[in-house]
Fold these 2 entries.
Entry 1:
Amino acid sequence: MRAGAAGRHPTNTPRRGARAIAVGCAMGVLWLGFAAGTSSALRASAVASKRAACEVPHLTGLTLRAARKRAANAGCKLSVVGTAAVGESNAPILKQEPGSGHTRAAIRVWTFSSPGCIGQADPGPPAGEPILTPGPTELISGLYLDGGPLAPLPGCTPRPGIPSPGTIVVLNPVTGSVVASQSVALGRLATLALSPGTYSVQGTFDDATVNGQAIQTPAQTVTILSGETVRQDVIANIP
């Protein structure tokens, strides 16, 4: 029996070694799989981070063609709500999410399509400002709200908003002193005769408040040349 036991003992050793090798191989495969998965995850994370590193440009008011080009130059992916038909590349952008200055991988923009037509409740001023025309050396400016919930557009025709009532003030950008000011009624624009130069323009609304305080627009910088009329409105963005 001892001899038999002694004889069987050597035959068990290779089997244990085989099991150890098999376990080691399995662990090696698992480790390689884990390492490969980790490497793929890191690559995916790096790609996602790269895609997210896009500073959103201002697109509202541009044509769809111009918005696509500006988004591509910024490295942002653009998705369009409201139009996908060929030939509508000149459709104006009525709204974008998120707003300019945010960091995102993708931007959604709204434009119009037929027969359904939607736009911002407060569409803002005409596109393409500042608008420069030969004429008196002066500034034409209005107070606009830009944003708000989406709403149907009458006749499916995108349109600028209606100027709000309030006060428009022109400031010396160096000293902050008031150069000119004018109060405007609903639907009206201010016309301010100015000397050639660079100014800051701000507006305060009569009919729009936040926490009981009248909304004041951010300052717009405008340069006026002799013999040139500049249209530059002041805008308060609302959610």
Entry 2:
Amino acid sequence: MSDLASRDVEKLETASLRERVYDQLKSLILSNSLLPGQQIVIDQLARQMGVSHTPIREALAMLELEGLVVMTHYKNARVSKIDADDVREVYEMRRILEGWAAGVAALSFSNQEIQDLVKLKQIFCQQENKENFKALLDADILLHDLIINQIDNRLFSRISELVNLQSRRIRTLVEAIQGVKHADTRNQEHCDIVDAITSRDPVRARSDMELHLVNAQQRTISALEEIKETE
């Protein structure tokens, strides 16, 4: 193998390692295994992952662009914090993006996609699921993803993906604290959105989605205040 080919292979291997480190760190942050404000020590992380500093620094740079970490003066990093302003910004963007998407979905969902929504509604409505935190959270995420993915617009997809990263971290943190608290209210809001879309009513679908996100913002800020009181 020529020297040039060897260098090309090494670059590919390095890029692949960076992506694996990035995916693992991103998963830890979005699941709140790495908590908001927690320090990420590169030396320690390199030892734990069995890799050099380079792919970790490259992965952290990618996560910093996504707003998930903040680099410190000592060339380490912290998981970005979540405060009331972050929540307001995320939910303002979600209302703009998902409100419009829900209206579009009411007119563009196929009959099969409508049936998928009906199955999701059954999860929200079934009595036995009201204490099943994971089932409700998974159904919640899937409902919003189905609606967002209905939009065939590359710029919308890039923007919504960035907003969704922050939103999922916030939702996971808050709902892990609150558990099934407010479950009845959230479930009803989700059922209202499904009913509007399956009725092919774009105005109602957009209105119900926006109302749901306004209420979700208020619940989230309230939960953050509860977290602060316990710190």
